[in-house]
Amino acid sequence: MLKSKLKVLLAQNDMTQTKLSELTGIRPGTITNIVNNNIKQIPVDAACKICEIFNCDIGDIWHYVRDDK
């Protein structure tokens, strides 16, 4: 599964979830769900907007964690 590192990026950049929502146009609830890993899918354009804001690659926002069930 993919795990979000967005909480870390927000902290490193001294940015709130609300500010990220304002800058990207992504709904605040969606940002919260990404931060809390409660999201099943995210539109590519939303992921690209987040990458643009943080000037990073997609791997800086999400990483793969093996789901060993």
Topology readout:
Elements: E1 2-4, H1 6-12, H2 17-24, H3 28-35, H4 44-54, E2 62-64
Antiparallel strand pairs: 1-2
Provide an overview of this structure:
With 69 residues, this protein is mainly alpha-helical. It has a single domain (2-64), classed as lambda repressor-like DNA-binding domains (434 Repressor (Amino-terminal Domain)), CATH 1.10.260. 49% of the residues lie in helices and 9% in strands. The chain has 4 helices and 2 strands, in the order βααααβ. The longest helix has 11 residues, at 44-54. It has helices at residues 6-12, 17-24, 28-35, 44-54; strands at residues 2-4, 62-64. A two-stranded antiparallel sheet has the order 1-2.
Shape: globular
Radius of gyration: 12 Å
Helix content: 40-55%
Query: What percent of residues are in strands?
Result: 5-15%
What structural class results from the helix and strand content?
A: mainly alpha
Count of β-strands: 2
Tell me the name of the CATH homologous superfamily: lambda repressor-like DNA-binding domains
- Widest sheet: strand order? 1-2
Global mean pLDDT: 94
Task: Report the CATH C-level class.
Answer: Mainly Alpha
Low-confidence stretches: none
Gist of the model:
49% of the residues lie in helices and 9% in strands. It is mainly alpha-helical and 69 residues long.
What key attributes describe this structure?
mainly alpha, single chain, globular, 9% strand, 4 helices, 434 Repressor (Amino-terminal Domain), 69 residues, 2 strands, two-stranded antiparallel ribbon
